[in-house]
Amino acid sequence: MAFVASKTRARRAPDPVGRGLPIVPSYALELWYRKKLSAMTTAMIADYKEQIAKEVKSEEGRRFYATDAVFSETFNFVLKSLQQRWSRIFEGFAATLAPEFVEKVDGQATSATLHSLSIAGLKAPVATYNRDVANTLKASVDFNHTLITGLGEEVHDKIYTSVMLSLTSPDPEQQGRSGIQAALKAAGEKSKDRIDLITRDQTSKLYSALSDARMEENGVDEFEWLHSSAGKTQRHSHVEKNGMIFKVNDPRLWEGPKADQGPPGWAINCRCSRVPIIR
């Protein structure tokens, strides 16, 4: 039987002529952001602890833990005052920290991307602040501002709920001073986990977006996916992408499980990286 060629034949992409270095988000910057947020939440919890302790040790407090249910009104007043004060503090803190964080990421991501492009063989890569980059930076500042202020609200809500339970709960572990102390400790642990997630995720996402933007403005629109095995759990879809070549705006990046979608470093807790490819 004679061989019959297909009517259409896909043309094989030319081999890369240049391959850059992996563009990896700065852990030092992630750690800097984490320390800033941790210091603020630690100060907040310490203030709550001090003010609550004053009320518990007061004469009214001692009487309440015997008979007086009116003491809950005093706690409500104290916690409301603390909430208002720390809401103002976090608002001012976010207004300063969010743009500072974004500016630092922009500088480091841009530097890493341009260096990688130079290694790939691109002569004198440049960085310009076009509308796309400006929009990315502004959106990131706004979103991180919301995350920072939300962190303060989450800490307050955790403490408020636990204090109210110490006044009303039939569970001995949630009652009285020991219940409040346990709640303050739990609030600190929960805020640490939340801060770890925010700092890791936001550093990685902004690095990802800015790296793509800097590559495109230098005429480089392809990268190799480099899988990281650093996480405790491997994403099967990311393992499969290892070594594959993608366009910056490749629709394949948004296929598969929702939690796995996006370019390297975009999905939550994704530590994969991109390697610029020049053909």
Task: Give structural notes.
- With 279 residues, the protein is mainly alpha-helical.
- The protein contains six helices and four strands.
- The chain has helices at 27-57, 59-64, 71-119, 131-168, 176-217, 236-241, and strands spanning 18-19, 222-226, 245-247, 273-278.
- It has a four-stranded antiparallel beta sheet.
- The longest helix is centred in the middle third of the chain and has 49 residues, at 71-119.
- It starts with 17 loop residues before the first strand and ends with a strand.
- The model has no long low-confidence stretch (mean pLDDT 87).
* Helical residue percent band: 55-70%
The coarse overall form would be: elongated
Beta-strand content estimate: 5-15%
What's the total count of β strands? Answer: 4
Describe the largest sheet.
4 strands, antiparallel
Radius of gyration of CA atoms, rounded to a whole number = 26 Å
- Structure classification: mainly alpha
Q: Which whole number gives the mean pLDDT?
A: 87
Strand order, sheet with most strands: 1-4-2-3
Q: Please work out how many helical segments DSSP would assign.
A: 6
Ranges with pLDDT <50 over ≥5 residues? none
Q: So what's the oligomer here? A: single chain
Please trace the helix and strand order, writing H or E for each element: EHHHHHEHEE
The CA-CA distance between the termini, in Å, is 39 Å
Summed up:
With about 280 residues, the chain is mostly helical. About 60% of the residues lie in helices and about 5% in strands.
Helix/strand layout:
Layout: E1 18-19, H1 27-57, H2 59-64, H3 71-119, H4 131-168, H5 176-217, E2 222-226, H6 236-241, E3 245-247, E4 273-278
Antiparallel strand pairs: 1-4, 2-3, 2-4
